[in-house]
Design brief:
The protein has 3 helices and 22 strands. The chain is of the alpha/beta class. The strands form 4 sheets. Strands 1, 2, 3, 5, 6, 8, 10, 12, 14, 16, 18 and 20 form a 12-stranded mixed β-sheet that branches. Strands 13-15-17-19-21-22 form a 6-stranded parallel β-sheet. The protein has a two-stranded parallel sheet with strand order 4-7. Strand 1 (31-35) and strand 2 (38-44) form a beta hairpin. The two termini are 41 Å apart. Mean pLDDT is 86; it is low at 1-7 and 12-26.
Length: 293
């Protein structure tokens, strides 16, 4: 099924609904804990660990501790909860400990002062809207254990310039990097099997994309309006299915495909977008295979 683009009115509706949901989210927490001069609020979960649940504004550099103590009981900090740092525009940096395994929905929504983020190897999931419109965010390092990047996770991060999707990620969500206009290059790891609709829509600064060898599906308008694209390297020997209008066209972008796959790409949907297809050098490909044995 194709997802049609209804443009800015739909964007405004989604944002309005999200804000209404957040406004209904009551200010509630189990206890507070001060670490390195910053007080954060925490909720104790059913397995006796703790979500970071800060509903008050914080500013500057914040270090989240790996454990906190309340009334003589020590808890491991395992997740950054729903809307934990929602709209903390004064937040400039955040240190996430290796005890954290998940980053919740709206966790850093519109933290417009946040400039960089390192997601440790302990984190396995980044939820939807997690870094929505973090407009000053220039770099993201995604840990090796993240398996999914949620819908709209980095939408509107207009200053973001370099993203590498690690080899543990299996799916990139709907509108995950929508309108990240500062993004110049993307490398998608070999474990990714699907790229969601509008995932990189309107990333006008994007010039190069490397698509891993396990990608089988690219969603509707995933790279649409990426008018600056000059180079695509697809490592998938079987051309990924393209759901409708995926790339801008006509397109003069050069596409490099795996050794022995040129005919497959020529007879697929890819032929409708890219007249300039190049097969990688087979001797180089053989050397790369031999080096991994």
């Amino acid at each position: 099924m194709k997802i049609q683009n209804f443009g800015k009115p739909l964007n405004r509706l989604i944002i309005m609904v999200a804000i209404c949901m957040l406004s209904l989210h009551a200010m509630a927490y189990d206890f507070s804990y001060t670490h390195q001069g910053t007080t954060l609020y925490y909720n104790v979960t059913s397995d006796n660990t703790v979500d970071v649940a800060d509903y008050n504004s914080v500013s500057g550099a914040v270090v989240i501790p790996s454990s906190v103590t309340n009334n003589g009981t020590t808890y491991s900090v395992t997740s950054i909860g729903y809307s934990a740092f929602y709209s903390c525009s004064g937040l400039t940096s955040i240190t996430i400990p290796n005890s954290v395994t998940s980053i919740g929905t709206y966790a850093f929504w519109r933290c417009s002062g946040l400039t960089s983020i390192t997601i440790p190897n302990s984190v396995t999931s980044i939820s939807e809207w997690a870094f929505y419109e973090c407009s000053s965010l220039t770099s993201v390092t995604i840990g090796n254990s993240v398996t999914s990047i949620g819908d709209m996770a980095f939408e509107g991060c207009s200053s973001l310039t370099s993203v590498t999707i690690g080899n543990s990620v299996t799916s990139i969500g709907y509108r995950a990097f929508y309108e990240c206009s500062g993004l110049t290059s993307v490398t998608i790891g070999n474990s990714v099997t699907s790229i969601g609709g509008y995932a990189f829509y309107n990333c006008s600064g994007l010039t190069s994309v490397t698509i891993g060898n396990s990608v089988t599906y690219i969603g509707y308008e995933a790279f649409y309006n990426c008018s600056g694209l000059t180079s695509i390297v697809s490592k998938a020997t079987v051309p990924p299915e393209l759901d409708g209008e995926v790339f801008p066209k006509p397109n003069s972008c050069n596409v490099t495909v795996p050794c022995g796959s040129l005919e497959a790409y020529t007879s697929s949907q890819w032929n409708n977008y890219f007249p300039n297809r190049i097969e990688e050098d087979c001797s180089s490909a053989l050397q790369e295979v031999e080096s991994t044995r």
